[in-house]
Specification:
The protein has 4 helices and 3 strands; from the N terminus they run αβααββα. The chain has about 80 residues and is α+β, with helices and mostly antiparallel strands. The protein has one domain. The protein has a 3-stranded antiparallel β-sheet. β2 and β3 form a beta hairpin. It is elongated and about 55 Å long. This is Helix-turn-helix domain-containing protein. Pfam families: HTH_17. It comes from Listeria booriae.
Length: about 80
């Protein structure tokens, strides 16, 4: 198997993982709400040393489900 360059490794990481700031931007929620989701095992975090990453696919799925949940539990926001 061929060795990947550092740039290729970064691109690979970017395609599968998100940082906290990127996840917050996609979900459009507060840090407190985000950490609550992690604590309740609604979002999986991956720790390696000092880095904490989140699965991109999981965050995107949560963002689409979040719109349905908001309409269900906060219908007055959509009238």
């Amino acid at each position: 198997m061929a060795e990947l360059t550092q740039e290729e490794q970064r691109q690979l990481l970017d395609s599968y993982f998100l940082s906290t700031a990127e996840a917050l931007a996609i979900l459009c929620i507060s840090k407190q709400n985000f950490y609550s989701l992690i604590h309740r095992d609604k979002i999986t975090k991956v720790k390696k040393g000092g880095a904490i990453l989140f699965f991109k696919e999981e965050i995107v799925a949560r963002a689409s489900a979040q719109n349905r949940l908001r309409q269900k539990y906060r219908p007055y926001d959509y009238n």
